[in-house]
Amino acid sequence: DGVAHVQSLKGEIFGGKIDVSGKAQIYKQSLERMLASPIIDIKALGQRIDLGSILKSPQVLGRLSFEGWAKGPVNQLNGKLTLPPDTQLELMGQVWRVRGFEVLVNPKELLLRSTDITRDRGGRISLEGRLGLDAAQQMQWTVRVFDFPLNDIPGVPPESLPPLKGTLSATFVITGNPAAPQLAGQVELKG
Asked: Can you give the pTM of this predicted structure?
């Protein structure tokens, strides 16, 4: 039938574990009928993969678990990647929790569903958007910042800031393409 099956391929990667299963159809009925693009149906589970090992950056740390799948001809894949609720990361020296992270991909675009990033020290960021996967790579991303304390900016030592009180909220829309992004939005200061 031309289908290769993998019940479970497990291994260690970047300090964590990964488990991949699925199948790939390479030909139909006989080797003379090879598919121009193999058809796959795979699932992957990642557990506690070390982001610091992958990114080689002290600015992004934490252990990442995920669940994902990909289906279809290799040159026309559809897929999805999700993180468990309350995934914890350290960004620029501060602990953040990621909620609702889900990326969908199809042959035409990558779509990030509404994702919230919060921190115990106050402030929340909401991200969502899409990126075209054609040559034009048109995109539209929306970034919303809610009640971010002005005296606690990630990556900026508190002693280097003047004494600030209040919060920042903002909405930004990023359009265009990665080579020529366009930014529009508004910022609101309180307190």
From this structure: 0.82
